[in-house]
Amino acid sequence: MKMTLTQRLLRCVAAAFLCAGLAGACSNSSSTEVISASSDAGDFLWNIPDGIPLPIVPSENPVNELKFELGRRLFYDKRLSGNGSMSCSGCHEQSRAFTDGKKVALGSTGEAHPRGSQALVNVAYNSTLTWANPTLLSLERQILVPLFGETPVEHGLTDANWPEAKRQLEKEPVYQRLFPKAFPGEAAFFSKDQIVKALATFVRGLNSFGSPYDRFLAGDDTALGEKETRGKALFFGERLECFHCHGGYNFSDSTADRTMTFINRPFHNTGLFNIAASGAYPAPNRGVFEITGTPSDMGRFRAPTLRNISKTSPYMHDGSVASLGEVVEFYAAGGRNIASGPEQGDGRKNPYKDGFVTGFSLLPSEKQDLIAFLESLTDEGFLRNPRFSNPW
Amino acid sequence: MKRHLRLSHSTAVLGIVGLTLGSACSDSSATQVDEPRPFQLEFVATASGQPLRCAQTLSGLGSKKTQGKLLDFAFYVRGLSFIRADGSEVAAELDTNAWQNQNVALLDFQDLSDECKGAAKPTNTIIKGQVPTQDEFSAVRFTVGLPPALNHANPASAKAPFNVQRLFWSWQSGYKSMRLDIAPKGGITRPSDPSFSGTNYFFHLGSTGCTGNPESGRPVKCSRTNQPVVTLSNFEFQKSKVSIDVATLLADLDLNTDAADTPGCMSDVTDTECKAFFKAIGLEFESGAVSQSPQVTFRLL
């Protein structure tokens, strides 16, 4: 029963129509990061003032209030973990600018993460996500890491426990109501994809532009005191060089928005380590090197936003610097010299260190001024906004 | 576009579509139209002949002949082809089912869920498909891993068999091509860190050094693809089975000692334990390219 030529051609025709209907599947170029009006379909409360460009939204997950509300509930829901013990908010507390105050995060099974919980502040603008990963470019992809990651375990969702976790979510009447509203027209609900999209929409809405510094920029000359004003001059001056990495409206050079012609995805080695004078950082905290394996990527991490930085101690990817005062001293020294132990080495001489981390001298009063300016980046309204709080 | 194509309409568009889709339909023009032949290709996983099952206590693992229990073993296969005696290659067309999609198959030997601690779960040891010819073959070839477009697609919305969470490798923006987890008897210590105590010895193979943005259509390129290409000769179509012996992957390693980075290997370029894994499966450790020296993990039965 050889196939006739007609039969074979008919197969091709069928395949062609399938392709026409499923362009994405056939061209494998499903376009995201497309800035389109549809990405903002419906009203969305961005908490972003006029004058600040809006962040980029993936076209396959346009923002709207229904998804935000669903995502907010999921964010605060412990049922979204392998053993029912951990919600996103377990490591991301609003009052701490969505950090947890710990040196490193603890997962649902008690396993310590090698790195500290990051602030969820203006993350919609991050050109890369997490501390150091040039391949994580969307919140939708990043969220998979804490939910399903195994090294280390965070939420601890696995193939084995996911069906039960999903059943627990399905039992919730609020979700029975919200999933169909957030994803109208979809055939089934409670999918991983829908959960991720809702969570991404919630954190995409966690924007903070209401600090005293912002009020100063908006024309309120009384918003910053004398100390803060002097600290601002130091921060943006060439002696301290802070603004090269922590510049722009988001105080991070890893920032992307809709007005940009091209997007930078920078990372920096700040001289925290230099084990055995080799440039090495301790595994598994070697920054971009963990992803690329390229020697010059050793110790390169993303510069986080400094907005609400006074609320997110301890500092650095490993929580190894306790206070803002110590952070300033660290940069003044141009790195960190570890005199003994397995991490012994002079980070100030790290061969991969960023060219702007060269050290500076600072009077004690200037240090206080600089810290006062950093504290003026705290947005009390953001930390208390009921829109971002636990809805349960 | 009508959803249901009626024959009378389809013949009208036949010529146009046939012309515009030259490449997709090219196999119908020049070569002889041959009857497709279905096949099944079975994979048999062992550790030095011991069947690889959750309940089995495995012995003789690694350089210290350690005992161990299986926690997980699975891998993706793509680009399966059969090779004629003259060296010409015929690509297999895999069926689409729960274990196979877009010509990629997942072979899954873990028979209990949850790291072999949970309930019974299905396994898959057989690739099913067809070849478009009645010709004889003398060898079989396949690649371990997913094609780049699938490897970096969104796992949250992926269809089977790309929806298996334990093979997600989200922090590396892809999938684990192969996953072998063993719990060695006596646990794992780390000479450089007396406080370290581990239970699981890993081999997680996957592409690293990836850049690009799958979501904007910019192709993802990985500096180390880490995808072995396996060619097995003396192949008898519909008779030969593929043996995969995980003991070969562990042969040069001490499973009770973590020599570098994670216990075992997660494809990290500085994890020296990866050298032994990569060598056994036919990869250059430095570049992630297919090795000149042959792999020893797969053979024909």
In a few lines, what is going on in this structure?
The complex is a heterodimer of chains A (392) and B (301). Chain A is mostly helical and 392 residues long. Chain A is 32% helix and 1% strand.
Structural account:
- The complex is a heterodimer of chains A (392) and B (301).
- Chain A has 392 residues and is mainly alpha-helical.
- Chain A contains 14 helices and two strands, in the order H-H-H-H-H-H-H-H-H-H-H-H-E-E-H-H.
- A two-stranded antiparallel sheet of chain A has the order 1-2.
- In chain A, helix 3 packs antiparallel against helix 6 (173-182).
- By secondary structure, chain B is mainly beta.
- Chain B has one domain (34-300).
- In chain B, strands 3, 4, 5, 7, 8, 10, 13, 16, 19 and 21 form a ten-stranded mixed beta sheet that branches.
- The radius of gyration of chain B is 21 Å and the shape is globular.
- The interface between A and B is large, with 59 and 54 residues.
The computed structural class of chain B is: mainly beta
Largest interface, chains and sizes: A-B, 59 and 54 residues
**Unreliable stretches of chain B, pLDDT < 50, 5 or more residues?**
1-30
- Count of DSSP H/I helices of chain B: 5
Write the layout of secondary structure elements.
The complex is a heterodimer of chains A (392) and B (301).
Chain A: H1 5-21, H2 23-27, H3 65-75, H4 139-148, H5 162-170, H6 173-182, H7 192-204, H8 212-217, H9 226-235, H10 242-245, H11 289-292, H12 324-333, E1 337-338, E2 345-346, H13 364-375, H14 380-384
Antiparallel strand pairs in A: 1-2
Helix pairs in contact in A: 3-6, 3-7, 4-7, 9-13, 12-13
Chain B: H1 7-20, E1 37-47, E2 50-51, E3 57-61, E4 66-83, E5 89-91, E6 93-94, E7 100-101, E8 104-108, H2 113-116, E9 126-131, E10 139-144, H3 148-151, E11 168-169, E12 174-175, E13 178-184, E14 188-190, E15 193-198, E16 201-205, E17 208-211, E18 221-224, E19 229-233, E20 242-245, H4 246-250, E21 264-265, H5 274-281, E22 298-300
Parallel strand pairs in B: 1-20, 16-21
Antiparallel strand pairs in B: 1-2, 1-9, 3-4, 4-5, 4-8, 4-10, 4-13, 6-9, 7-8, 10-19, 11-12, 13-16, 14-15, 17-18, 20-22
